[in-house]
Design goal:
By secondary structure, the chain is an alpha/beta fold. Helices cover about 50% and strands about 10% of the residues. The protein is built from 17 helices and five strands. The model has no long low-confidence stretch (mean pLDDT about 85). GO terms for molecular function: hydrolase activity; metal ion binding; nuclease activity.
Length: about 350
């Protein structure tokens, strides 16, 4: 029995049923564009922030296991490639779900579910791409690459935090997410190597938390305390405490060796600032602001960090922006030490002695 035969079963006065049937007749499926096939390489990169080769041959196979389970096939009519493209498009522009739905030809609710699903799929491969050197040979290679930046020996990573804007989470604790610049954010800690690869990321703290507090409560600090990385050191700005494994700038340098130490320290540490610049330039949603629940915002931050590393490791790179020293000083958290307190420990003095010999 078709819709026209159904009409004969009801009286003409039954307007609700007739309107319902008319609605069924007028329903049309949105046309879905094949962006992968229709876009040129440049158009594709501009829209999705990755090349076609990386999307099809690296990212999609890495999360392909998510699309193989029968209980997850409610979106089977949208192929895995387009589900990935919907999510990449969201990361690239941060549009409302209805805009993304129109872009790909699906309902906004479906777009939202797909973005969440693919984001969580990317989290399952986090350990493959976000990790510290796992053996002595890997540590040595990281240290050598850092040494070539400014001849600062023994460096295994540069640490800093960046604010990712979010909408007000509401509730009684919303104000803890307001940072010192006045907007709501998550304060995200990251450690990068000299290639701009993110080796560690912490995205669970509200914007009002100080950088040093985040580090003090991080797993990576406990790993350094346990001696897991030997005599390797991190480089951090003056917002961090000076520790045997965390070198900070010397306040009020008084000798040429201390000046050289500070110069090499700044040059080496700015790799993490460039990392943030590349990371946010590739995924503008991190700068424009995340309009979602805090927990999902945290997942998006980590998922995009996974994608950032994939791009760096496969040389699908965005040119790093120049670092403005004035902006670095403006963005820096207030120092933990009082002005003029030199507080040089024996490890830092050993580095100063090294720069005295240069």
């Amino acid at each position: 029995m078709d819709l026209f035969e159904l009409d004969e079963l009801f009286d003409d006065n039954d307007e609700e049923i007739i309107n319902f049937i008319d609605g069924l007749r007028s329903y049309t499926v949105k046309e879905r564009k094949d962006h992968f096939a229709e876009c040129t390489d440049k158009e594709f990169y501009d829209r999705f922030r990755f090349s076609k080769n990386i999307v099809r041959n690296v990212i999609l196979p890495a999360i392909g296991h998510v699309f193989q389970h029968e209980h997850l096939l409610q979106y089977h009519e949208i192929d895995p490639l387009n589900q990935l493209l919907i999510t990449l498009r969201f990361y690239a522009c941060g549009s409302f779900y209805i805009t993304l739905g129109d872009f790909i030809g699906i309902h906004k609710t479906t777009a939202g579910r797909i973005i969440k699903r693919v984001t969580q799929a990317l989290l399952t491969i986090r350990g493959n791409y976000i990790k510290f050197p796992e053996n002595e040979e890997e540590k040595r290679r990281v240290q050598e690459r850092f040494f070539h930046v400014a001849q600062f020996p023994g460096v295994i990573g540069a640490i800093d935090c960046t604010h990712v804007k979010i909408q007000s989470p509401g509730g009684n604790n919303a104000e803890v997410f307001r940072n010192r610049k006045g907007f709501f954010s998550l304060n995200v800690q990251a450690i990068s190597d000299s290639r701009y690869v993110i080796m560690d990321i912490v995205a669970r703290w509200p914007g009002s938390c100080h950088d040093s507090h985040i580090f003090a409560n991080s797993l990576i600090k406990r790993r350094f305390e346990a001696g897991e990385f030997g005599e390797s050191v991190l480089l951090g700005d003056s917002g961090y405490p000076l520790l045997n494994y965390l070198m900070t700038p010397i306040g009020n340098p008084q000798t040429p060796a201390e000046e050289r130490y500070n110069g090499a320290h700044i040059s080496s540490r700015t790799v993490v600032e460039r990392t943030f610049g590349i990371y946010k330039r590739r995924f503008p949603v991190l700068s424009l602001g995340l309009r979602c629940k805090v927990h999902f915002a945290q997942e998006i931050i980590v998922a995009t960090a996974v994608l950032h590393n994939i791009a760096i490791l496969h040389k699908d790179e965005i040119v790093p922006p120049p670092v403005d020293v004035n902006n670095l000083l403006e963005d820096m958290e207030p120092p933990q030490l009082v002005a003029g307190d030199r507080n040089i420990n024996f490890v830092q003095q050993r580095y100063v002695n090294y720069f005295q010999q240069l």
